[in-house]
Amino acid sequence: MRRVSHHLAATAIALVAACSGTATAQTVRPVYREIGDWLIACDNMRDCLARHAPDPVWEHEGVEPENIGIDIVRKAGPIGAITVRTWAERRLDPAGFHASGAAPLSRLPWRPSGDGQDAKLSGDPARRFIRAIVDAPRLVLGPTDASHLSLRGLAAVLLAMDEAQGRVGNASALMRPGPAPASATPPPAPLPVIRAGSPVPALRNPKALVAAVRKLHSGIFAAHECDREPDGEDTAYPLTISDAIVVLGCSRYAYQTSVLVFRTPRNRPAAAMVLKLPDPPSAPPADGDSVGEYIEGGYDPDTRIFREYAKGRGIADCGSATEWTFDGRAFRVSAFRWQARCGGTMPGDWPVLYRTRR
User: Cβ–Cβ contacts within 10 Å for residue 136, how many?
Assistant: First the structure.
């Protein structure tokens, strides 16, 4: 998993370094930060998520945490709807939720799910709940020490959320309100528009093209240390009137695989070139050793979307998921979800950092 680990670590550094501070109306860059036992992620619309994601040092404190979590979601703009969601792998009793050392917050109108394993709180009650817990050391969601969640870093994360959404100094701020009205908050940023390219003629012989690219460019497979032999999953699809995309199996890891992707003239496989897809906004350049290699990568010719799904570890409580849409000329990033720190989430439920519309 060398390539996956390097990609996630480099992305973490770049996002933390490049995305802190208040976004401008002209360019809203994603925000991702880890503070204490919490993380914050804000997308390019200014929608934000604060999530309990315990620092790995927890593993050395002798307490095995329960698989339980809490998210605080706030939408962008002056209204800025707030939702608190808790979840567990058992039934929850929201009437007993309380900050350590305080009485249970029993009068809040939590909305449990059908199976009782998650509960939501919205609007002013959610704001009251946040204010009641933000300065406490722990949030109690159950009867045992394993269901006590650390609130270390929550206040700083919520302040970073106010900053990213332009709320500091106005009535809508959670942590640093001021005399300005909530209407002073910037509106949600407009989403970039990406249109998929028009359909093009089918390939005459995709199997022959796949075999030729794999044979003629064997040196690239050796450089990537690929260990997957042709297994019937190699594919080729039309991109333009003159070009095709070829997706070939590369490596097998403990819990996922990778592919090598080429863009090639339909009739000249010898001229195929490794396809370097653009990095998501604020992400670092791809590791030179892995350019053109994508974890669980695949292309959908109907939507014209190439997807990568890279788990940080087997249970998928961290990782990244990226989509690129082919617009008729080139691939453009059209969606990006990412969480560097493992824990605090259900498998694959990583924060959204970038989105577009069609």
Answer: 15
pTM score of the predicted model? 0.90
Q: Over the stretch 282-318, which tens digit does the pLDDT of each residue have?
A: 666 667 778 999 999 999 999 999 999 999 999 999 9
Higher pLDDT, 38 or 96: 38
The dihedral of CA 346, 348, 352, 358: what is its sign?
negative
- Angstrom distances, CA of residue 331 to CA of 70, 200, 321, 334: 36, 16, 16, 9
Q: Distance between CA atoms of 76 and 161, rounded to whole angstroms?
A: 10
Which residues lie across from 351 on neighbouring strands?
A: none
Least Cα distance to 85 among 108, 112, 66 occurs for: 112
Query: Nearest Cα to 245, choosing from 253, 235, 256, 258?
Result: 235
- Residue-by-residue DSSP string for 172-215: T-SSS--SB-GGGSPPPPPPPB-PPPPP-PPPS-HHHHHHHHHH
What mean pLDDT is predicted for residues 77-100? 93
Model confidence over 134-170: pLDDT tens digits? 999 999 998 877 788 999 999 999 999 999 999 999 9
pLDDT at 3 over 80: no
255: CB partners within 8 A, 6+ apart: 311, 313, 314
Residue 116: count of CB within 10 angstroms of its CB? 13
Residue 150 neighbours by CB under 8 Å, 6+ apart: 36, 37, 52, 54, 58, 137, 138
